[in-house]
Hints:
Blueprint: H1 3-12, H2 17-29, H3 36-47, E1 61-63, E2 71-74, E3 95-99, E4 115-116, E5 127-129, E6 134-140, E7 148-149, H4 152-169, H5 171-175, E8 177-183, E9 188-194, E10 206-207, E11 212-215, E12 227-232, E13 242-243, E14 245-247
Parallel strand pairs: 1-14
Antiparallel strand pairs: 2-3, 3-12, 4-7, 5-11, 6-8, 6-10, 8-9, 9-12, 12-13
Helix pairs in contact: 2-3
Amino acid sequence: MTGATARRLVARSRPPLPALGVLLILADVAGLLPWSALAGVVVLVGSGLLDRVTPPAAPVRVVEPPVCGPWRALNSPATKVPSHGVNGLGQTYAVDLVLDPPGGGRPEFGSGGQWRRPGEYAAFGQPVLSPVEGVVVRVHQRRRDHRARSGWLSILYLLVVEGFVRQVGGTRWLAGNHVVVRADDGAHAALVHLRRGSARVRPGDRVTAGQQLAECGNSGNSSEPHLHVQLCDSAGLAGAVGLPMAFRAGAADGRDGVPADGELLST
């Protein structure tokens, strides 16, 4: 069994593991089962906290930017790897992009209450483009677009309550609406947190780089309307391994690359 195969087997069993770990802890507290050590391991594996060892880097693939306009990078692999703190779900080199127009359109965090409507953000409904030429292999677009978590109380709720529930629910609950395109070289581009019902493609459709796939939304484990984009080795995100990518002329200095945290995507 290869290391990648082992990671996939663990990842595919991951969604129910945090819940199982919590049940084991509660049973231990109640004196029913003295398995607190096992419970701790189960929780760590299920939450992805043991995924911090980054897999060996593959060659960097240059892809087209998936959006147009002044999108600012968050959780960027140009700042740290793994970019999202763990390697689970193939997101080792993923990047989050938020639309941040110079004249406003992205509400300031902490203003206007804890729960904002997604339509208050400029990113909501913006076109999401395919970064690669290839074949659409996965489309999911039934998850609702929930309100943005725009204050510390709502963010705490997202991290403690919603995140746990979605972890148990599995990949579709975490990713929300998403489209996966298999590039001709075998890599898979995943566009995540899309707007409900906005997909313009179906599995089996062939698409070109730059073709619109859907619209930006706020579905899944998302605090505000934004686009999460990544390359990985499989359409099944639960067991995928992340692949490094660079946007064509996408770095802050105009070269091929990914903007660092807080930098604008050059498009």
